[in-house]
Amino acid sequence: MAQTHxxxxxxxxxxxxxxxxxxxxHGSALSPMELRVRALExxxxxxxxxxxxxxxxxxxxxxxxxxPHNGARVVARAWVDPDFRARLLADATPxxxxxxxxxxxxxxxxxxxxxxxxxxxxxxxLCSCYPWPVLGLPPVWYKSPPYRARAVIExxxxxxxxxxxxxxxxxxxxxxxxxxxxxxxxxxxxxxTEALDEAALAALVTRDAxxxxxxxxxxx
Length: 220
What we know:
By secondary structure, this protein is of the alpha/beta class. It has helices spanning 23-26, 32-46, 52-65, 69-80, 82-90, 92-97, 132-135, 140-143, 145-153, 155-161, 198-202, 207-211; strands at 4-7, 109-113, 118-123, 171-176, 182-186.
């Protein structure tokens, strides 16, 4: 059973920050794991076990076709369609299928909605379970031990490192994904977007907003 962790709405006292989870995502150097993956990929290609064109096509699929825009379409529909929103929050998996979103790694989804009172944050403390068909390729920082450990212990400090400072009265609820159950955040619709259509709204939804480490872009 997936675990959730509630944190009070008051800012935490100073903690040791440890490794910066977001900085690793922007750094130019490859992590040891990425280097190992690159080396393994080279060996498999050299021995003819993997077709490099097929590998490139697979990566391209997850980056451009099964990327976070799938989840963004779900969020945008929930913003404009109250009935869909209700179905999504009640039972996310079949609701997402209405938009053709889902598949292996996203068979059992739960969507949790941000409110002025509660901000939701998703993590996988045991490994790096992530809804690939909904959000695409997981960011490097999501899989890093510092993020996986600190998101539960000091979520407010972690969010601040992502540049997200929440109101003092807004509590943080941390959702721990598993191989059987994976979470996505439904962020609040930005103010001033009443005139935007569904496609324009989807363009405002970032991957980080659906994990809970960010917010949607500000509408024009």
